[in-house]
Each structure stands twice: as structure tokens, then as C-alpha cells.
Amino acid sequence: AQSVTQLGSHVSVSEGALVLLRCNYSSSVPPYLFWYVQYPNQGLQLLLKYTTGATLVKGINGFEAEFKKSETSFHLTKPSAHMSDAAEYFCAVSDSLSGGYNKLIFGAGTRLAVHP
Amino acid sequence: DVKVTQSSRYLVKRTGEKVFLECVQDMDHENMFWYRQDPGLGLRLIYFSYDVKMKEKGDIPEGYSVSREKKERFSLILESASTNQTSMYLCASSPGTEPHSNYGYTFGSGTRLTVV
């Protein structure tokens, strides 16, 4: 079965600094990978996803992620953090179920703090 | 523009009560999911449904049941609420049934349930 590991439950950066949130996955088949963001007291919102094709994926709000098969990684980056980026971020991998249906397996999440 | 609606944002119930959490989606999605979210544990799948009147157990179904009488509505039921079911509950939906679907989920805003 697929699994997802997010390194670092809390990450703190200065405004304007690089954001790097780490995600490693295990999968026995080519994975579909996702990053979601959750702002306080809200549901999860899709940031970006990798399915096939280009390994560098661009998402909303200036975020991007690179799929590296050799490292089984899908790290999320943003060149310059903004105060509004403070949120919790979840990495997820698509897992297949019997009968052909899919579900997403989520990592434990990384809380990003941005300070002035 | 709202896609997945959860009926309550905050709910306080007493131990032993039967609790209903409602979720409605307006995107004609086949798949619907219930997760609970706890600090440090990420999202854990309780139940999911890939068709009307169909349901499947997720990773932590104990103490819960579900109902899907109509395609757009997926209800989570706590048969006899207990304090360890205090959590944030998230509903999500997705289209399609292909293996390793590249569709992400659309989430509701969540219901924060407190059992006292």
C-alpha cells in the first residue's frame, strides 16, 4: 500500500524567504501526487498535482513541486514566502482499491509559520 | 461556486448521543469520503462511497456508520458519541472511478465536533 511521509511537522520562515516543505512517498506503481493547503478553520484546498508528463508542476499562489522518481520525493517550494502562506500543508498520494476505485493517502501535515 | 457543503461548522454533543453529520455536493461526483483530522495524525479515512447506497469501510470505521441514499448526500453517523470522537470531520468528493484517478478531492469546510 502507498504511504506518505512529510518531514517536519512545523516549519518557520521569514517573510520573503524560500519555502521548502518535504514529502516522500512509497508506491508500487507510478503515483499520482497532490499538495493541499488548509487555512485555519477551513477545509483543504488543492494547491497542485502531478499525474503524468512534466515533473515540475506549478500550482496556485506561486507554489510549485517537483516529482523526483529516483528519490521518491515531491517537495513543495515557493521562492518568497508571504504572511498569507501561513497554513497547514498536506501531501497526498493516490492509492488504488479493489474494484478499481481510488482514494488518497495523506501525510500527517506540515504547519508553516511565516514571521515578519 | 460552493461545491461541498457540510451542514454544521461547530457541534457540541453529549456522550451517548446519536450524531448525524451531513455532507452535500453539487458536482454530480460519484465518490464521497469522510475523514477525521487530528493534530499530528493528519487525515484518516473513516468511510467512503463510490455510488448511491454503496459504502466501504476506511481505516478507522469503528464507532461510525454512513448513509448514501442520494448521489449528492453522504451522511456520517456516530451511533453513540464518545469523547474520543471529538475531532474535525471533513467530507470530500471526487469524480470518476478509474484506477489511480488523477482527480483530486474537493473538500467541505469541516465540522468541528466536541463530545462532552
Describe this structure in words.
The complex is a heterodimer of chains A (116) and B (116). Chain A is globular and about 40 Å long. Chain A has strands at residues 3-7, 10-14, 19-26, 33-38, 44-50, 56-58, 64-68, 73-78, 87-96, 102-106, 110-115. Chain A is built from no helices and eleven strands. Chain A has 116 residues and is mostly beta strands. In chain A, 0% of the residues lie in helices and 57% in strands. In chain A, the strands form two sheets. In chain A, strands 2, 4, 5, 9, 10 and 11 form a six-stranded mixed beta sheet that branches. Chain A has a five-stranded antiparallel beta sheet with strand order 1-3-8-7-6, with no helix packed on it. Chain B has 116 residues and is mainly β. Helices cover 0% and strands 51% of the residues of chain B. Chain B is built from no helices and twelve strands. Chain B has strands spanning 4-6, 10-13, 19-21, 23-25, 31-38, 42-49, 56-57, 64-70, 73-78, 87-94, 106-107, 111-115. In chain B, the strands form three sheets. In chain B, strands 2, 5, 6, 7, 10, 11 and 12 form a seven-stranded mixed beta sheet that branches. Chain B is globular, with a radius of gyration of 13 Å. Chains A and B meet through strand 5, strand 9 and strand 10 of A and strand 5, strand 6, strand 10 and strand 11 of B.
In short:
The complex is a heterodimer of chains A (116) and B (116). Chain A has 116 residues and is mainly beta. Helix content of chain A is 0%, strand content 57%.
Mean pLDDT of chain A: 90
Amount of helix of chain B: under 10%
How does the overall form of chain B come out from the CA principal axes?
globular
How many alpha or pi helices of chain A? 0
DSSP helix count of chain B? 0
Q: Outline the low-pLDDT stretches of chain B.
A: none
The biggest beta sheet of chain B reads:
7 strands, mixed
Beta-strand percent range of chain A:
over 45%
Low-confidence stretches of chain A: none
Q: Find the structural class of chain B using helix and strand composition.
A: mainly beta
Largest interface comes to: A-B, 30 and 33 residues
Query: Could you tell me the mean pLDDT of chain B?
Result: 90
Q: Any idea what the radius of gyration of chain A is?
A: 14 Å
Q: Could you say which overall geometry of chain A the principal axes of the C-alpha atoms support?
A: globular
* Beta-strand segment tally of chain A: 11
Order of helices and strands of chain A: EEEEEEEEEEE
Element string of chain B (H = helix, E = strand): EEEEEEEEEEEE
**Structural class by helix and strand composition of chain A:** mainly beta
